Amino acid sequence: MTIPMKTLTLAFGLAAALGLCSCAGTRAGETAAAEIEAIAPSGDASSGATAAGDTVEAWLIAYPFQARTDALTAEGGRGGSAYGGSEPFARRELMPELDVNFKGIAFSVEYNEDRGHASAWKDLVMSRRVNASTPAACMTCKTGDIGEVFAEKGWSYASMPLSAFTAEEHPSITCANCHDLSTGHLEPKQPGFIEALARQGIELDSVPADRMSAYVCAQCHSEYYFEPVTRRVVHPWDGGLSAAAAYAYYQGQPSGFLGDFTQPDSSAMMLKAQHPDYEEYSAGVHAAAGVACADCHMGKVDDGGVIKTSHRIASPLSNIEGTCMACHTDRDAAWLRSRVAVIQDTVFAAQRDAGQAVAAAHGAIAAAAAAGSPAARLAAARLLVREAQWYWDWVASANSMGFHAPVAALGNLAKATDLAHKARLALAGQ
Ligand code: HEC
Ligand code: HEC
Ligand code: HEC
Ligand code: HEC
Question: Which of 50, 67, 223, 344 would give a disulfide with 401, using CB separation of 3.0 to 4.6 Å?
Answer without folding.
Answer: 344
